[in-house]
């Protein structure tokens, strides 16, 4: 097997389980060097709202809490958005290397076990982005993790891609989502909104606000990185 990211051959002894039950062999693996290059985030020492390094709720989350007093602030992100992650994301998302949807499949599968009974809802892409790239990076990594999801939201309008906007422009961006399903499909359900990266939180809050109009029982949010 080759590393999903750097393509170096991976030499390791098979586990007993993998020899006895070859179908349990992972479809894709990361080599140790690549795995070590990403920085996993820990809940301890992080803002409970967004997992930024902070002793308690960070100033951004405090501002969000004033705006959304009824919302549960408990975002989970798996990795720090630092150089290695940014490089990986650029290759996956902007170069469009769709094989990389497998890179974090094991970590995502493991993390999502903590959300039993939740409907996973990926943040939708604008049509223009989808046409450019040919795939939604979030549904890509969810599929690779073997997680089923439901596209509860549509994206209505598009301006510049997030990466070409300043932080201020991102914060000003108007509500870009609407429901893609009838409200009964959301009413009383637990929903986990999933995105690739948590930047300002704005994307997820816009999405949550639309879902809340259909009165779900609970909304939580999850991203690969923050
Ligand atoms: Zn590698
Ligand atoms: Zn925070």
TrEMBL record:
Superkingdom per UniProt: Bacteria
Q: Please give the Gene3D superfamilies that the UniProt record associates with this protein.
A: 3.40.50.2020
SUPFAM superfamilies membership: PRTase-like
The Phosphoribosyltransferase domain sits at 182-224
Instruction: Spell out the PANTHER family in the cross-references.
Output: DNA UTILIZATION PROTEIN YHGH (PTHR47505:SF1)
Belongs to which family? Belongs to the ComF/GntX family.
This protein's name: ComF family protein
